[in-house]
Amino acid sequence: MDESLPEAHLALAVLKKDAWNWAGAEAEFKRSIELNPKLARAHTNFATLLAVLGQDQQANAEASLGRELDPFFTGSNWRLGWQLYLARHYDEAIEQFKRTLELDPNHVISHVHLGHIYTAKGQYQQAIAEYREAIKLGDDTASNQICLGYALAMPGDRSEGLAILKELRNTTKYVSPAELAILYIGLGEKEQAVAALERAFAAHDPQMQYLNLEPRYDSLRSDSRFQDLVRRVGLPQRIRSSSVWPWFLEHLLGVTRFSRCLAPAEWGKSIERKIRSCDAMSRSNFCLLHSQRIKKGCGGSRRKFAQRRP
Questions:
Q1: Does some domain include residue 224?
Q2: Residue-wise pLDDT tens digits, 209-258
Q3: Tens digits of per-residue pLDDT, 146-169?
Q4: Which of 34, 58, 88 is the endpoint of a domain?
Q5: What are phi and psi of 19, to 5 degrees?
Q6: Left, alpha or beta for 157 (phi > 0: left; psi -120 to 50: alpha)?
Q7: pTM above 0.90, yes or no
Q8: CATH of the domain at 73
Q9: 197 assigned to some structural domain
Q10: Which of 119, 128, 181, 310 maximizes the CB count within 10 A of its CB?
């Protein structure tokens, strides 16, 4: 390898990242950027590694810089959208992928990732439309079929999801076991999902690098076996879970519904609307920030109600 070529170090960095060699990948990305600070692809790919390592702010900065360096390159644009998705800034990610599609209306990757975002937001019909558009444009890969199957199964169309699973079991195409776990999750087959992830670990599946980041794994995060996989892959332990928040959210919404009876109705409604509209991480943050305020408000409402009672 020519040590003076930034592109060579970039290629090596990507290979090391996909092989879970985090330190080696980081060193190669930094060397590539040192040799050519204006190489947009080095910054946007480095952003993904930083996200994998839990360095979200630095990842966002690198992805944004990559796009600034080459604003009309679809690669820089879609990778910024990808980073926004990994950071769970879903609305910003949607806008970024739409800008990418303005540069190239047939950009398949943008349609696929828009499908991911709409899935994460629970907008399954929009997600299905994006995945099918990607298939129409030529992306009939097992990966895209898995994403489509998940989006079909989650709102209740289990039969179509099972049909896709049957096809994948009989296909000659490569099927990532880490991605197959996503389809099992969509079908409600938790044990099969965990087993698929174990196979992915044994196969050193590159997709395992996204265990901490991929929203569709959220329902497994409280499982000790999933946490052990995160540790074995060498990823940082981080709290990124929507597995805990549904109970807390329902409790919180119960409080807001109670407050509607005793306080101005619009107050409780607006709190519920805000919570329901957030993505998983934002919901958790919102709940933590406002739970005490809501409880305090309800306590005051109860006191006023008691005073009014005959």
A1: no
A2: 999 999 999 999 999 999 999 999 999 987 554 433 443 443 444 434 33
A3: 999 999 999 988 999 999 999 999
A4: 88
A5: -95, 10
A6: beta
A7: no
A8: 1.25.40.10
A9: no
A10: 181
